[in-house]
Amino acid sequence: MVDNIPKYTPIEKIDGVYVKRDDLYRRAGCCGGKVRACYYLATRGTGRDGGLITASARRSPQAQIVARLATYLGREARCHMPTGKQTEEMQDVVAHGGTIIQHRAGYNNVIIARAKADYAARPGWRYIPFGMEDPGAVRCTREQVANIPREINRIVIPIGSGMSAAGVLHGLRDRGLDIPVLGIRVGANPTKRLDTFAPFGWRAMMSLVDVTPTVAYHKPVTAQLGGLPLDPIYEAKCLEYLHRNDLFWVVGRRVKI
Q1: Interval 141-178: pLDDT, tens
Q2: Can you state the percent helix, strand and coil of the chain, rounding each to 5?
Q3: Domains with residue ranges and CATH for the chain
């Protein structure tokens, strides 16, 4: 995949729905807004040119992104995650030179604490937060709220960590746009993270709904919008919620292994 670094990823109309193609941001063989944010966190400032350390779920694309970007930057990557069967995402981390450190206690706060301790013991390395919980990651997305067509009725966005949605909400407020947002909750409850990173009063800007209860987070769904393949864990589960003239914010698409 060739790097594609547009200032603003485009908005296209597909089957009556406007689509924010943030999946067209491409770097290091990965695509999407999470890649943009990770690259920013990995390269901002000076004095920390060592490897990258992160915490991630076993099925999350975050560890893949970190490992591939580390290789792209000529660095090492150490990815902390729970014990369990090796996933395709984990195989891809190893294939791109990343080291996986698994921990028996599978709670996120335990995995995050182990990753932070590893980071503290490695001067010059950089820590890429779980869910990329950093104001810089929010800023990377809020800057993409541009060239919004007047015709759209609302913005629909999949919700995992909630960080991309926080960026979209900030971007709308920056530009004085009063457009309702529907967040399709695919993973765990994001409200605590949104309370921290989204603009004050975000509940008046965005409604949250859960995906169909029978569609578990780890269960992939194969779907396309027009001819656009959608990420099987996130975007593919949002199709039933889309209406004509919605703006569907495609955060990204995981690497096909």
Answers
A1: 999 999 999 999 999 999 999 999 999 999 999 999 99
A2: 35, 25, 45
A3: 11-32+134-253 (3.40.50.1100), 36-132 (3.40.50.1100)
Percent of the chain at pLDDT > 90 equals: 83
Burial class (CB in 10 A: 0-12, 13-18, 19+), 102: middle
Radius of gyration of the chain (CA): 18
Q: Which amino acid is at 174?
A: D
pLDDT in tens, 47-95: 778 999 999 999 889 999 999 999 999 999 999 999 999 999 999 999 9
Contacts of 102 (CB under 8 A, 6+ apart): 80, 81, 82, 83, 84
pLDDT of amino acid 256? 72
Cα–Cα distances in Å, from 139 out to 41, 206, 233? 11, 18, 24
Q: Crossing angle for the helix pair 33-43 and 62-72, nearest 10 degrees?
A: 50
d(CA 86, CA 88): 7
CB neighbour class for 241 (10 Å; exposed up to 12, middle 13-18, buried from 19): middle
Q: What is the pLDDT of residues 213-236, one digit of tens each?
A: 666 677 889 999 999 999 999 999
